[in-house]
Specification:
The chain is mainly alpha-helical and 424 residues long. 82% of the residues lie in helices and 0% in strands. It has a single domain, classed as MFS general substrate transporter like domains (Growth Hormone, Chain: A). α3 runs parallel beside α5 and α11 runs antiparallel to α16. The longest helix is centred in the middle third of the chain and has 32 residues.
Length: 424
Amino acid sequence: MAVLQPGVRPREVWAWAMFDFANSGYTTIVITAIFNAYFVAVIAGNAVWATFAWTAALSVSYLLILFTAPLLGAHADLHGKKRWLLLTTLGCVLGTAGLALAGPGEFALALCFLVISNFCFGSGENLIAAFLPELARKESLGRLSGWGWGLGYLGGLAALALCLGWIGWAQGQGMGPAEFVPACLLITAALFAVASAPTFLFLRERTAAPAVATAVSAWQRVLATVRHAARYRDMRRFMLCIVFYQAGIQAVIALAAIYAQQAMGFDTQQTIQLIVVVNVTAALGAFLFGHLQDRIGHVRALALTLAGWIAMTLIAWAAQSQAMFWLAANIAGLCLGASQSAGRALVGLLAPEDRHGEFFGLWGLAVKLSAILGPLTYGAVTWLTAGDHRLAILVTGGYFVIGLAILAGVDVERGRRTAAADNN
């Protein structure tokens, strides 16, 4: 069975997937593993407001993406996606390097560069996803999406390995965090810049309209999509589904390390080991489920992963031993790669051919809304219950249940017919 669209060369697929490899280091090092803790402990000096300031800055960047993603996607459809992808990549690379300039007490500078880098990261993530339907045939979207996500998790591991190697050497030389963490940010920025180069060298632009199109045209396309939202009932329902199930996923991504330490007693070394293992299982989940969803159907495959998320939540909530939590973490890893890959593929399946950037902008909007909703829910529960992380993870798991219920009403074939009719 042919996997790629006519005229697409395997080198282009590799170049497209390399962007997932390149940008994953940013989330791994800046958002999840190293810089977040460094900001709270060193830059903000463990101030009582430090964690709130960190989450607030992330929320600001997500809100900016919420307001700009559909318009940016529509404009990219008209003018070309690669130029915008290049600009957002440069913004994230330079913003990540800028974080290295923030020393102890310079929290305003750090938060400014955090907003810039995370906004550019999220915008670029939407744009690279919009290339997917141009590369893969409809029946192979899941497989190709899985390859990209899987390679992305390996990129996160590569960034983590480079940074941990540097940290180990630096600590052996007697350096402290204020000396070795800035270098980790420069390593991350350099890896992003170098690993994304094949994307701009070999990935072709295919669907850009003539350059006479204007920003007004982009706005008109977004408004037309909103006005005719009833026609895209299955895409609309799936976007709502994404908001809920991704809220649970985003909470896990942002707070799993905190849960491991606060509820399960993990130390820093064990937490880093946990992140490494979860990245490995996430890569496996993306690769394996990418093939599976093309065989059994995208909705059925995504429903299977959401059931896995629900099981993970219950195991983590009930776990009294670290062994049980390791089991939950590995289930989370498998489901993380699978659900992220399946969601991106299903959007590509339901989007009209001439509106990929626009609809993937809506996808990014839904994901970023969930990135605000999920972690804030978790944080609010812990605040209201004086630090009950077990109840917080259980409440957050409810988002997976809601997402699964909404997913049941998505009819892929009906959605595909609507998208095809829109193209005619």
